[in-house]
Amino acid sequence: MQNLTYLAVFEPSTNGSYSIYFPDLPGCVSVGDDLETALRMASEAASLHVYSMQCDNEEIPAPSISLSKEDTEGNIIMPVTIHPELFRIKKDNERIKTNTTIPAWLKRIAEEQKVNYSSILEAALIDYLQIPGHGER
């Protein structure tokens, strides 16, 4: 999927913060303490929203080229470009915690030998699931 550029609506508040929403991405909202932070938060929110839609096999909306008067009046409109494939690679390769249960005696021996549980579990799962291209390191 190519890069996508959506129009973001930044609604200023009295305390200098901005609420953000994307008319093309219903439910995609965020907030930033100032315009610079709001722009960064908008990019993250849109990227995560599209990533979630991809994971749920939902159709990704095409970006609009204009917005309604209701969206624009009194607000700041800025284009926000996201990179869905780069974001997917980043999210899919994030390290996440997972709990596992092993016998206490095995844990003691592993700790004595300074075993890296994450590395062992990852290698074992790759081997068990027969995932190609992830052989011996």
Per-chain topology:
Blueprint: E1 4-12, E2 18-21, E3 29-32, H1 35-55, H2 69-72, E4 76-82, H3 84-92, H4 104-112, H5 117-128
Antiparallel strand pairs: 1-2, 1-4, 2-3
Keywords:
single chain, 137 residues, alpha+beta, Double Stranded RNA Binding Domain, 2 domains, elongated
Task: Walk me through this protein's architecture.
The protein starts with a strand and ends in a 9-residue tail after the last helix. The protein is built from five helices and four strands. The model has no long low-confidence stretch (mean pLDDT 93). The protein is 40% helix and 18% strand. It is elongated. 15% of the residues are buried. The chain is α+β, with helices and mostly antiparallel strands and 137 residues long. It folds into two domains: 4-92, Double Stranded RNA Binding Domain (2-Layer Sandwich), CATH 3.30.160; 95-137, no CATH class. Strands 3-2-1-4 form a four-stranded antiparallel sheet, with helices on one face.
